[in-house]
Every structure is written in structure tokens, then in C-alpha cells.
Amino acid sequence: MPETVFEVDQSKSMRDQAVPGHNRWHPDIPLATMVRPGSEFRVECREWTDAQLGNNDSANDVRDVDLSVAHMLSGPIGVEGAEPGDLLVVDILDLGPCQGPQEYGDAPGQGWGYTGIFSKQNGGGFLTDEYPDAAKAIWDFHGQVATSRHLPGVRYTGITHPGLFGTAPSAELLARWNRREQALIDRDPDRVPPLALPPLVQSSLGGQATGSLAEQIAREGARTVPARENGGNHDIKNFTRGSRVYYPVHVADAKLSGGDLHFSQGDGEITFCGAIEMGGFIDFGVDLIKGGMETYGVTTNPIFMPGNVEPRYSEFLTFIGISVDADDTNEYLDATLAYKRACLNAVEYLKKFGYTGEQAYLLLGSAPIEGRVSGVVDIPNACCSLYLPTAIFDFDIRPSAAGPAKADRGMSAVAG
Ligand code: ZN
């Protein structure tokens, strides 16, 4: 096991750790530790909300979650010799729940994780117009496999990955983010859910910063929800073990930070907290390509090589969506709408087997489904597809003349 350079005690908030992490992006968050190019090391992580969610049968905690706390990140980790313009090479050597799947406890990642549907009034999700109320599924870990008392009839192998890692932005890049996201918010400032999230002083944590520096980080720091030029919250399920990511370096020492570990996730992470969320550990190897941003033209977003360890499913039932809304409005090559329609088509299908719409939505967010942009040129309809592995069900999910195997399949945790 490599040396642990960022430690987390899962019985404590990130704020109360010996070296606390942070929940905003800012160039001046003080380094938590320093590593050398060529080294391998372990980073421990809290679950992204700092463990506000419990292993219980109520979704009140999802409904009431305080999103100003998110994402609780570990870091920043400085890399010796890194300078703006370099590419930081990050190998994901290993990752998993807290100390492996056998440790049980109250924090997500201690033998269990969860998937949540956020209330439309508090974060929302991809299908928030159709499913506006909070719901939750608790998943139990069995080695690589997840099962849920809230989703009987399903078990699958997780594609374990970090939702969020990235380098620190420069002051200039941070100012650009804040400018352009405010311009987006200004298009419809009262929208629910909001179009974007501006800096927020409430609940800001700037690592070991104190006094006026902590206040400056709280005032200026970018929220961690979107992916940006530093990497950030990609939620790409294929950032699994064996991946190599090339992050642009925008500040001296690169300042690598992250967290939001996922036991599993479907493409799109559609419920917003649609992965199986957990705390745990991640082992990295790092190196540098000096001047690599310009050499390879990687100046806007990271590039990566996917991991080669992932669940092996060979048969899929595939749902198709096109850019035509439920009221028959035709949009022009709108791939987001097309993927949404593919998801809703899958939900309707799964309801025929006895699942509630919320259960189906939670399943599509968390199971290792493949989402594809299939066609974006055949005017006027974009076409997206969603590949659902048939082997994750303990009954036959395929259409047949005999009809669907309908059964009482329980329900997700709901708020109330
Ligand atoms: Zn997540």
C-alpha cells in the first residue's frame, strides 16, 4: 500500500480533520501536502456531501441536503516542479470504499453507498420535471457487487471511479469562470433549479486557509459542480482503475484535488447524485510532461486513457431517444433532449415489470449503463441511445410473447 498523503477520519467532518480539505476551486488554497513526479501515494476521501446522507429508509436527508457544503474535496496536493503549461499525468492505480468493502459504519463508503434523486427545489436532476420529489436507494457492497433493498431483483458489478479530480485554476481562469457563469445565470436569474451556481460564502471551506485568505476564497472560489478546464466534476465512469489522465496545469505545483468517489455510475449520472456515492481511498501515480499543454494542444480540457478493468456485460437492451419532446415539439438536433427521451423510454419499460418510476430512475443513474450519442446530423432529430445490461436483473428483462415478468418490487426510500 502506498503512503497515505491525505488522511480522513470518517467519523469526523472534513472541517475537523487534522488537515482539512476544501469545497471551492481557488488558486490560493494552501497545499495540504507535496509529492514528487514519479511517486505513488494514497488519498482518502469523504463522500461528496461530507456524509449528510444516512443508511436508512427515508429520503428526507436527500430532500434537505445542504448543497453549499459540496463537494468536499481532498487536497490540494502539490507536485514538485509543476508549472503552468505542463501536463500533469495522473495514473489511477486503485480505488475503493473505506479500507476495502469489509469496513462497516455510518458514513457512506463504510460498506454501503447511496443513490439519490434530488428534489426539484434543491438541485434537481436530469428528469426533474417528471420526477420532482426526493428519493433514495441504499446499496450494500459485496466485494465488487452492489445490491439494494430498495431495488430488489437487481445486482451488478460496479465500475468504481472518482467523480471529481482536477488541478487548481489560475486567478485569471477563475475570473473567466465566474464571469461566464454569471452571464449564464443572468439569462434567467429566477430559474428553479438555477442555470449555474455563483460563488457562495456560506459553508465555504478553504483547506488550512484562515483569516482574510479564507474570506477571499469564500468570496471568489468557484463551486465544484461543473466540469471545467481544470478537469473537475467530469463524472466519467470510465475513469476507473488503470486510467491515465492528462490534466492541464494552471498554477505552480499543479495543486491536484478531488473526491466524490463512486462505487458505480451509468453514463450521464442522470439523477444528479445518480452514482453510488461513497467515501473511500484512491491511489495515484503522478508525473509531468513539461510544456505538454502547448506540445499536444491540450489547453482547454484534460484528455485521458480509460481504465482496462470494468464490468463485463455482453448483452444489452437498448432504448432510443430522439429530439422530440413529450408534447410533440420538435427541437433541432438537441442531443440532451434525445438522451432524456431515451432515459424516459427505459423508465416506462421498467415500470411494466413492477418497478416504480423512481426505482427505474435510480437504477439508470447508478448501474453500468452505456449512453451513446448515436446521430447528430440527421435533421431535425438528434438520436441518442441507452444500453441497459440484461444480466443485472434476476429475471428476464427482454421482450417476449409471454409478456413482462411483473412482480411486487417494493419501492425506493421516499421523503415524507
Ligand atoms: Zn458523485
Automatic annotation (TrEMBL):
Single GO MF descriptor: hydrolase activity, acting on carbon-nitrogen (but not peptide) bonds, in linear amides
Classification via Gene3D superfamilies: Acetamidase/Formamidase-like domains (2.60.120.580)
Region of interest called Disordered, as start-end residue ranges on this chain: 1-23
InterPro entries referenced in this protein's UniProt entry, alphabetically: FmdA_AmdA (IPR004304), FormamaseFmdA (IPR054833)
One Pfam family of this chain: FmdA_AmdA
Taxonomy, superkingdom: Bacteria
PANTHER family: FORMAMIDASE C869.04-RELATED
Protein name per Swiss-Prot or TrEMBL: Formamidase
